[in-house]
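Board notes (copied after class):
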Amino acid sequence: MKKKMRKFKIYRYDPEKDSKPYYREYSVETHEGMTLLDAIIHISENMDPSLSVRYSCRMSVCGSCGMSVNDSLKLACKTQLETLHGDVLKIEPLPSMKVIKDLVVDMEPFLDNLKKVKPYLITHTPDPAKERLQSVYDRELIDSSVDCILCGCCTTSCPVFWTDKGYLGPAAITKAFRFLYDSRDEGYEDRLHVLGGVGGVDKCHHAYRCVEACPKNINTTYAIDMVKKLILTGKRDTE
C-alpha cells in the first residue's frame, strides 16, 4: 500500500484557556484510501489527545464532521486525502460559528433556524384510513432535498449568513422546500410568515457558494428559488 507523509495545519482554540486561536502542525503517514477524518482521528488518538473534533457515523450520513479544508467546506469522513492538494493542508472549523473548542462549533443557532421552518410533514385534513399516498413523480420532485444531512456546510459557506445571523440560511430553506413541495404536506400557511418575512428567502443573493459546498450535491439555490416562486404564486410549481 502506497504511503505518503502529509502535513496538517490545524486550527486550535480552547476559549477556557486560550486568549486567541492559533495553528499547530502535525505530520502524518497517510495511505491510499485514507480520509481526512481518518487522519484527524489518528492525530487525536496517537499524537495530541487534546485535539477536539466532532464526528459520529464516518459514512457521510450524520453530518457531524463538516469543516473547512484549504478554505473549502467539506465533510471530513467523505474527503479522500488523495483528492486534496498542497504541501500543507489547512484545517479549520466551520466559518462564522462560535467555536466551542478546536474544530467543534456551536450548532445551536443553525438548528434554531431549522426549527423555525417546521421541517416535518404538516397536515390539517383528517388522516386517511391508511397512509397518505404519493406518486413516484411527486416523490422525485423532492428526492435531492431529502438527502440533506444538516451538516451546515451550505449555510456556513453563505456570505449573507456571515453578516446576518437572522438569515435562515440555505439548509433551513432547503428543508422547507422538501416539505412545501411534498404533495402530502399542507403546511404552506404555517411556514409562510417565516420564509417570506425578514431573514427569509429574499435574503438570498445567489452567490452559489452553498451549491459548491454541499457534500450531497443538492442544488440548494434551486430549492430557494422554488420556495420564492411558491410564495409569489401560492402554488407549487411542479413543471
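Comment from the instructor: The radius of gyration is 20 Å. The domain at 108-233 is CATH 1.10.1060.10 (Fumarate Reductase Iron-sulfur Protein; Chain B, domain 2).
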